[in-house]
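Summary for the steering committee. One of the milestones for this cycle was to obtain a three-dimensional model of the protein with DGJ bound, which we needed before selecting residues for the alanine scan. The sequence and ligand used are listed below.
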Amino acid sequence: MITYLESVRQFQLNTAHTTYAFAVADEGYLTHAYWGARLEPQDLTDLLRLKESPFVPSTNNRERASFLDSAPFEYPCGFTGDYREHAFGIETTGGFRACDLRYADFRIFSGKQDPQGMPHTFGEGSETLMITMKDAATGITVLLYYTIFRDSDAIIRRTAVRNDGEKPVLLNRVLSASVDLDDDRFEMLTLYGSWARERQICRLPLRHGKQRIDSLRGESSHQYSPFFALVSPQTTEETGIAYGFTLIYSGNFMLQAELTQHCQTRAQIGIQPEDFVWELLPGAYFDSPEAVLVCTKDGIGGMSRCFHQLFYRHLIRSTWRDKNRPVLINNWEATYFQFDLAKLQAIAQESAKLGIELFVLDDGWFGHRDSDSCSLGDWVPDQRKLPGGLKPLTDTVTGLGMKFGLWFEPEMISPDSDLFRAHPDYAIQIPGRSRTESRAQYVLDYCREDVREAVWEQIKAILESVPVSYIKWDMNRQITEPGSAILPPHRQKELWHRYMLGVYALLERLVTEYPDILIESCSGGGARFDPGMLYYSPQIWASDNTDAQERLRIQYGASLFMPPSAIGAHVSVCPNHATGRNTPFETRANVAMNGTFGYELDVTQLSEQEKAQIPEQIQRYHSISHLLREGGLYRLGNPFAPAECAAQTHAGWDAWMYVSESKEEALLTFVQITAEANLRSRRIPLAGLDETAVYHYNIDHTDYRKTGAYLMQCGVLIPNLHGDMQSLQIRLETETDADS
Ligand code: DGJ
């Protein structure tokens, strides 16, 4: 519920468990009062501390600058006295950068208004507060949107800018959200990484100054994720305060926490301001992407579950959202570029025998692509590898009762391609400067409609010629030499955001014209593993690293803000191609089942013993995948814990649980990362269960019946398994009347 307390000009957003409040202070400054556990609507303006030095300008105008540099602002702007990081920045035609936004008006309405051309939350039960702020000198109007959903504790924030003045204005910063938290005892949790080592966790105390994570790569990136949390030093997985922030956007972003001189913390998230300038003509609008803000007292796990639930209910738009995804086989690690029709047919035939439901043809099927050095942009089947095109293969696959999926990299162009030879200007580049190659390819200028059209025509021709049920949309390099042939000089810095709008426009077209195609987004592994992509693709390839042990960390990190049902995860061969490590086949499957499950190997080369496990794994995955989609995730272990000590510590093992909303079903997965001699069983307390319910389960051929209270306080005893990377998956179900 959103309320306005007129007597103190205070806005209060109340979700089931939280309150977010801000108020119009002296002279229309918009000031942040409170964000935390739920409070009934009440006057919270004492928390603004405006009745103490330096006071508000009407009391102490000679110290206006001190007021501006210390008051908690809801949407701060720069160069008028607030020297902390600002959220909004402009430049006038005269070259001046100061801005002074003051409150003008508000509107509360049911439903929401969406940012144009960008992924966004949607669905029943929402209520929105729209605040209008104005900069009198330029005529710039800023609209701050706050949306809450009845079934979520998250707050969706975004900013829209309208130029109501008479002259163009350059926007050089439009963050989606800024929050001044009245506390300095935070640790900042971020995700960092690299190709094949995505989403590692960093948790460090905030220090005075600015701590920033960002991307200037044209994608959300392997290196950092558009997510961070501020937690207290005492916050654990299931207890303590956690503020989480993420952005529904896949391009350049920045997020920052700044510990200020007055020991407050300014938290911000939005489009990367570096190299961003957007010309806003009179009468024109600019929309920021939506930011999602979460506050919980239930620790890091509570924060994750809030993100997961919001994204499941209000962001994943695919018709596949509620359906069990087909278990797929992808030929990438099986063949890379070296395949022919017979090889693919053999893999398909063996896969079908084992119950695999979707055959995905990855890279290498088009142009003359025998390696990654050519043909991107020429989406025509390679007749040498696939005589007669894709049809003979799709006939085989569908004849076997499987669905067919296909890989594209629609945003790219190879210098060695017919498309580039005909249209070298289609590549992002700067005239007179050499183009930096990456994986021997360039990025297409998606700011241009004609470029998008040229790609779309080719993709559509394929989709109309063979039955494609699944598309893997890949993106394997970052942007360099940002330059577009269609943008005038003063608009070149619009390229980064226009590029993303172009990508979203093509994805929009794809999901609108082919709503039943299952899309898996990908970017050289997990470089675009973000909520923006989730809007179009309900599953996202999380990493090119398929090693089960490394995946424990990558998937744990990913699950901090993204729903596990979105984490593309495959069983691959050993020794693993990325790490050279051997892990048991069963554990590879148990780890991949903590995501969207599939296989990525040459199934014709598996041992009979391995093949024999596959039908049961598929059947098991289908029987649990509703828990991954709709259930709550409880992380019980921590794969980042050091592996040198044993028994009752978190070291050397990982475990996680899914609990259904009714709490009648749960799934526990345990992985013993490193074996140790002479250890007794490990006692692992469970979480998220119904205290009074009686659960039955089986460990090591022994049946148990225990209450939820027992399981959460005392735990289950997991035997010391013999060997590294051994694992168990345990199903818990409450007893029905018939059982007891
Ligand atoms: C990068 C992806 O992450 C891989 O899964 C694979 O599709 C390759 N690209 C193909 O080039």
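Key point for the committee: The pocket of DGJ is lined by residues 332, 362-363, 407, 474, 476, 522, 524-525, 541, 544 (CB under 6 Å).
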